Fold:
Amino acid sequence: MLRSRSALTLPACGVFGLLVGAYFAFGLPDPSISIREQAAAKLEMIQIEVAATQSRIDAINLKIYEVESRPVKLNLGDPLPEKQSYELGRKARAEEVLSWDIDVRADGSGLPEGSGDVWTGEEVFAENCAACHGDFGEAIGRWPVLAGGHETLIEENPVKTIGSYWPYLSTVYDYVYRAMPFGYSQSLSHDDVYAITAYLLYLNDLVDDDFELNYENFKSVRLPNENNFYLDDRATTEHVAFAVQPCMSNCKAEVEITARARIVDVTPDEEQFEVTALAGTSSVASPGDAKALLVDAGEKVFRKCKSCHAIGAGAKMKSGPHLTEIIGRKMGSATGFGYSSAFKSAAQEDRVWDEAAMAAFLAKPKAYMPGTKMGFVGLKKADDIDAVIAYLKEAG
Structure:
């Protein structure tokens, strides 16, 4: 096929247009701009493209992370997914692991070398623990009670202590070492923790006052409630029970809220518990005379004794004997209580709890009755002793 010559001829304006288009399409150099300026402009464009590409990569990585982090729904019996490694960080050094590896398990794993006796524990406890937990574990304010509570787990409001509820002694050691004293955790030496643990055993009538706890005999100590703890079996009991279709008929018309956390106020008071000799009102005697006020003050001091002793009509034995009609009663005579050999000897000697004997005992129990199982260190104030005796006479 023949083409005319005129078809190959372009007007001048058409050629100029092609040159301009080629410049914009293919980046032909502009003779009015230096080579350095052109290179800088191209570098800037490359950097913009790199930044945009990196943004797209980051977005893709985020999607991958979200997918991989999404919880996997497993059915009972499905194999667990394999652990994934993201190659982050480094392996911890042996000394770094050692600084965190401080837990003590039920079988004694992780237990450090050391030892401590009851009497040393009493001193360390008084210095570091008594401000919150009381001189002999009776607790101050709403801080946890550490002693007593025997045979209360079947009651409506059980007293859960080391002696009544806790399953393993290793938990006691581990918690004291790891978290106590409050606000100054891990400041106690291993020997201090052994001593405090021994003292807590003594407060709960589990060992005698000459007992020393150490690495060798630690595993042989058993707490009373150990057998009531068992391995978690919810996968075969509760899960099966609640896997059935729930009942959605004959539902309760409305739900009644009986209490709110801010009203119940479960947080312990920061202020220390203090007893003023003559203050408050009494549930034993009406205020209005010096005797009633003294009895009221004694009732407040007696809070230190409540975890181990009961008083009044129908009072039962706790970790200590009941104190009903204690003033004038023969020592070591409460029927059904397992007294120490010291009190058994006092009973054979027909010694009686008169006010003078009670005052001396309350001031320094172990000095007055060497060998007593009672871990209470004594009342320091004479006014508190007089008040407690007045309360014992009135309430019993």
About this structure: The two ends are 134 Å apart (CA to CA). The beta strands are 115-117, 212-214. Residues 1-16, 22-28, 269-287 have pLDDT under 50 and may be disordered.
